[in-house]
Amino acid sequence: MSELLQVKNLNAGYGASSVLFDVNLSIREGEVATLLGRNGMGKSTLVKCLTGWVKPTSGSISFAGEDVTNAPSHKIGKLGLGLVPEGRQIFPTLTVRENLLATASNANGKSWNIERVVALFPRLGERINQMGGTLSGGEQQMLAIGRALMTNPRLLVLDEATEGLAPLIRADIWRALGELKKEKLAMLVIDKDLKALLPLADHHTGLEKGRIAITGTSKELEAQHERLHALIGV
């Protein structure tokens, strides 16, 4: 598998406040990686760097063979980075169908369309003409994932994929991510559900106070059970 994303010695922050310190991360085509850590440890700042919302102070980011360290968000999106943002951020006054069509793209030789999204999340098919703002939190999260898939991404980044959702909804989302893994879609998943993450992901990176605190495969992390749970804070 070829390398899709490479983050090298990344430093970033906001004004005089530094948040990330020499962070390294790589994801190959078809791999599932996780970003672990408690709230406030720098995970969302790293996502903002990957998507072009925050410019690093030093270090580099390459994606799909291009240096995107200081690239604008729209260029990174066109290269194939699809984001499911924290807080979902769907369009509340658009229907489910309109939300999906708003991000539709035929880029990257993929074939995600409304029919495939509805097959992955049948609930969305039942509510296809319903306004986004009237959906439950779990349904909005499904819609946010579907909307990102409609960009036909090469890498899907999910920021807090199941936080605050009911157990049955979480299970449905983890099922869907498992199906996406079978299709060899590369993913970076940010979540705290270790029971779901460990069997899903190929490798993990844990942040603590903006620095890499732990890395490894699921098997390697399971051998550091106490350290891992202290890092996650659950």
Q: How would you describe this structure in keywords?
A:
234 residues; alpha/beta; Rossmann fold; six-stranded mixed β-sheet; 10 strands; 35% helix
Task: Please characterize this protein's 3D structure.
With 234 residues, the chain is an alpha/beta fold. 35% of the residues lie in helices and 27% in strands. The protein has 10 helices and 10 strands. The protein has helices at residues 43-50, 73-79, 96-102, 114-120, 122-126, 137-149, 167-182, 194-200, 218-222, 225-232; strands at residues 3-14, 17-28, 32-36, 58-63, 66-67, 81-84, 155-159, 186-190, 203-208, 211-216. The strands form 2 sheets. It has a 6-stranded mixed β-sheet, with helices on both faces. Strands 2-1-4-5 form a 4-stranded antiparallel β-sheet, covered by helices on one side. The mean pLDDT is 92.
